[in-house]
Amino acid sequence: MSAARDEVLARVRAALRDVPAGEPVEPPGYEPPATGYDPVQRFAERVADYQATVREADDLAQTIARVCGEQGANRVGVPPALPAEWRPPGVELVEDRGLSPQALDALDGALTGCALAIAETGTFVLDGAERSGRRALTLVPDLHICIVERSQVVAGVSDAIRALEGRRGPFTFVSGPSATSDIELDRVEGVHGPRRLEVLITG
Amino acid sequence: MKEGFPAAAREALANSQLRRNLGHATSTIRAKRARVVGEVPDWEALREAGAEIKDRALRHLDVHLERLEEAVTRAGGTVHWARDGAEACAAVAEVARAHGSNEVIKVKSLASDEIGLNEALERAGIHAVETDLAELIIQLDDDMQSHILVPAIHRNRAEIAQIFHRELGVDVSDVPAELTAAARAHLRAKFLSVKVGVSGANFAVAETGHVVVVESEGNGRMCTTLPEVLVSVVGIEKVLPRWRDLEVMLQLLPRSSTGERMNPYTSIWSGVSDGDGPREFHLVLLDGGRTDVLADEVGRDALRCIRCSACLNVCPVYERTGGHAYESIYPGPIGAILTPQLRGLDNAPTLPWASSLCGACYEVCPVKIDIPSILVHLRGRVVRETGTPPTERVAMAAMARVFASRRAYEAAQRAARFGRGPLAGAALRPWTRSRELPEPPSQTFREWWRERGA
Predict the structure, then answer these.
(1) Mutation choice for B interface testing from A6, A7, A8 by most B CBs within 10 A
(2) B chain contacts of residue A106, beta-carbon cutoff 8 Å
(3) Phi, psi (5° rounding) for residue B407?
(4) Who is most buried in A19, A77, B141, B170, counting CB within 10 A?
(5) Which CATH number belongs to the domain containing residue A77 in this structure?
């Protein structure tokens, strides 16, 4: 391997001469405290705190159609494996089979599921698999409608990280619409990611 | 370094707009942080766990770096090692050149600013487009960052509107939402077309090869997802031993940094994935002085830092001087211990004194870096190793001689009463410039005791 690699590793080892041999290389574990709240309700509250719209929807396809109508979204990108019962009537669905960034940019929005959701932080996690779709699909269009099933909501960040352990991803943790506070610390929602986020809780 | 922190701070203190912006920014973030930290029932346990994770990563850094290299390679990525900033810059330029690209899109990265990546790429004929809103403002105006989290906090909205008008040719009001929309429109075309993306990383997991970028605007997602090639420049201290360590870090960082329960977007990827994201991934592991920091058993704790900037926001010195006075990409308390160690004490000898040692930084640090103790340790090293500041050393040597002899001590007390003591003159001028020297009493305790006993 490279000379730089050998030298950096040699410097590291020289710098750590004081560390006793046999010390475990991995840290001791962390245990999260028990929680006593209803995760779905907490998730909904916390998502709403981020200026995203969150609603519980039992008649899912109809609710999605209504949201698309409100948002003026006529052409919506979806992962090819999106379940039939999640497909809204009266909306043109464009299946993302490797759409170019330009083609994604021409869509009115994206409709996906997710891998799981975190109540404590109002986060949903996309995992690049069948329901979440490719990362670009939920990034380029200006509207993201994400469907979260009640059974997918875990309590805290620890639960989510542990549930994803052993999986490759790529993962995207989404907590509200994109935002910036770079100008005089004035929070502005909607920068480069989707400016509008709709979360639908179902199941 | 020109004349160091005292001179630069004096200049900054005269800037009333800077002080107003900073006062507003730091007090707002402080309050937000306090609220979201207060709602976590086991915050202290999390801090403890965070410190232990980073500690164990650093104390066995060689093992974890080799594991990281292996995991990233297995996932289809390429690992480059850089002894210094120049080597890291060269590695990035090489990747861009191999793809025939004279432009890269870049998500905010302190490591890349530290090594002057943009300037190095420019010299190689490659233009780096900063995509973070604040970094874009800084880049367009050829300015310098003043805060880790909100780098353009020293500029106000009217100035930013002028910069956008002048540099982007857009007519825009000074409403932050409109300025943000202008930046979005400007960068959109770049995101959709530029072939090479450049990022840093908040964490890199040795066990699995996952690289983590924590952000708010979505420019991080754009830069790490849309280009054909991605290069991430990552300091070697960013490694975490295990995947599971993210459960602690992703709780500590957003609450400490932006004062949110979670930041809008966290991207986590491992190597390359078929049909999703870049087809090529390069990880550049940067030493750049970090192994020197690691070699100092006390100072090495500075490498635990996860760049949250909580210590800046609580620091009474930073709040008044702002970031530029630290003359480094790392300002505030963390900068005062990191910069002198990364650059060498000779190159930043005044920074360990840029603190009142009040300890607020230690209290808020999510990974429990004992910044005040490291500051004191570095002050000792500056005096011992660089021979500065000599005044204090000469004065202390004189004091030691005086205190060692009763006769010399009493003579000094008498001399001090006339205001002509060795300490009251030129030697103390830096101290008395902003303080009153206490009036010596007309009678010392010893004199009073002798009189009373007689």
Answers:
(1) A8
(2) none
(3) -65, -45
(4) A77
(5) 3.40.50.10420
b/e sequence B344-373, b meaning 16+ C-beta within 10 Å: ebeebbbbbbbbeeeebbbebbbbbbbbbe
> What predicted TM-score, i.e. pTM, was given to this entire model?
0.92
CB nearest A11 (choices: B46, B243, B287)? B287
State whether residue B132 sits within 8 Å of chain A by CB. Answer: yes
Q: Which residues of B touch A167 (CB under 8 A)?
A: none
Q: Do A27 and B134 touch (CB under 8 A)?
A: no
Q: What ranges do the domains of chain B cover?
A: 40-288, 390-453
Helix (H) or strand (E) holding B316: helix B316-321
- Alpha-carbon distance A67 to A65, whole Å? 6
Q: Contact, B314 vs B30, CB < 8 A?
A: yes
**Confidence category of residue B427, pLDDT binned at 50, 70, 90:** low
Q: Is residue A101 part of a domain?
A: yes
Mean pLDDT of chain A: 95
Fold of the CATH domain B40-288: Rossmann fold (3.40.50)
Neighbour-count burial of B382, counting CB atoms closer than 10 A to its CB (0-12 exposed, 13-18 middle, 19+ buried): buried
A23, A157, A179: residue with CB nearest B247: A157
Q: What is the pLDDT of residue B428?
A: 65
CA–CA distances in Å: residue B175 to residues A62, B136, B220, B285, B373: 38, 17, 24, 40, 44
* List of chain A residues whose C-beta atoms are within 8 Å of the C-beta of residue B49: 27, 30
Q: What is the sign of the dihedral through the CA atoms of A65, A67, A69 and A75?
A: negative
Q: Name the residue facing B221 among A121, A139, A184 (closest C-beta).
A: A139
Query: So what's the pLDDT on residue B236?
Result: 98
Can you read off the two tokens belonging to residue B99? 């793809």
Task: Give the strand pairing for B196-199 and A109-112.
Answer: unpaired
- A13, part of any domain: no
Q: For A2-122, list the strands marked E by DSSP.
A: 53-56, 75-78, 92-95, 109-112, 116-118
Chain B residues within an 8 Å CB radius of A2: 80-81
At B55-68, the pLDDT tens digits run 999 999 999 999 99
Residue A28: count other Cβ atoms within 10 Å of its Cβ.
Answer: 10
Q: Confirm if B114 and B85 have CB atoms less than 8 A apart.
A: yes
